[in-house]
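Subgroup meeting minutes
Present: P.N., E.W., G.H.
Scribe: E.W.

1. P.N. recapped why we're keeping a running log of single-chain structure predictions: easier to compare across weeks, and new members can see raw inputs and outputs side by side.
2. G.H. added today's entry (522 aa).
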Amino acid sequence: MSGAVTDVRDVLGIDPTTLDQQPRQPPLKKQRTVEKRPDGITRELYALLGENAPPVAVVEHRFKDKPKFLGSVAPWREQTFKNPARRDGMELKHWVRQNSLQDSAADDVAGAMEIQQTAVPLDYQFAKFNIKINLLEYSDAEYDAVLKDDDWSRQETDYLFKLIKDYDLRWVVVADRYEFAGKEDRTMEDLKSRYYSVCRNVMEMRTPVTMMSTEEGALYSAMHYNKEQEVERKRIVQMQLYRTPAEVEHEQHLIAELRRIHDSHQQLLEEREELFNRLDYPQSTGSIAAYQGSQGLATLAQNILNSDRNKKRKSIAAPSGQAAEDEKATTTTATATTTAAATKPTPSAAASAASPAVSRQGSIAEPPSKPHGHSRNESTASASAPTPLKDKNKSNIKQLTKAEEAQYNLTHHEKLQPGVFFRTMKMNLPKANSFINKSPAIMAELNIPQILSMPTSKTCAKYEVLAREIAALMDIRKQLEKVEQETKVFKAQEAMGGDRTKRSASVLSDVSRSSKRPKKEK
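Output recorded in log:
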């Protein structure tokens, strides 16, 4: 057996010395998990359950444990205090903790009783919240100078300021408590208007507006009260509060419609601006003095030829004697050409707007007896050659969306086939035999001719949609007839009850099979 093991080691290339050096580790023991026995169940009963958990949780109901207090309980004592808001000097008492009155940590009961006997009344802890407003006070001279009003008497004004001081400018409470004889119908807006007008007039009398400081100017501006605006605001708020659901829905519809109109108006303005930018042309900024005369025209033509990179350079210099003789004859042409060149900022840009004679023949000094075929080739080459101005304009062109193309009636066509053909020949109509046989009768019933009198692209597209809908309806009608036939068969089977059910079913199946057989031609 040991020899066989040695042979296996030799085949696998295992060194036996390495196996002898490494001690064999004992197999790991499977750790046994011990679950904690739940409370409220005995050990013997829990042992009977084994490893399975109990189907019902056993919960023992107990009362809440008593809280555990750390340290000793702080003593409380009765302490007197004074309220600064009271003017009668009355002293009241309330219970407070002893630690909140002494800084020492080693107080005993005897010390607490001694402090209680010699305690001084403390201030009320909530006295800091008793804040009084600084109400404006006016004198008799100031009232007689700037505060007189036919609708407000001095007694009523004093009564208003007394209520405002008592209730700390709480206007809702002031308006509710306002009960002056003969003026019980005063509204909150009337009271506010009178108060703020008195404050503004007194401040302006004491310190002119131009001499007020920054704080005084801000306070003076804050005293402005618009009674009519406040009444209108509350009326609108009340209307909004008592709106019906139908009015709310109508208002939301109007808001959505207004937003749509605003968006369409903005889009129309942008499209109009873009159209104006396309129709606009560069303004003339150069001078035409350099292109006057035969020499200037020759220079202009040379610049035109140089701007076309795909065209060979040609000499357009004319003989001196011929240039002198033709000077008068070319005066009219020079004027027209220089006018066109003046509308461009540079001579190279003027090449794209030169006269037709220059662009077709390629040279104004070229004799007119040249064959027309050669001039056509030159014009084709010059038209196909790209120019910097064309590339720049092409890069600035905006790509229109489908909605904009439909609005401007723009269409893109695929490469057309050579030869003449009718547009109706390219329509995609259903190829089913049922449609081909029955569509003429349906079209005649709808008063639609089979051959369109005006086969435009939109008309053909609508005709294709109509044809597809007719084919779909024909399929639906076929399916409906089939379902009706099956319904009749089922109703006949239900009418025949008892032992005749199987016979009727077999007869109906024979009838259905015979109806499906193709009829022989006579």
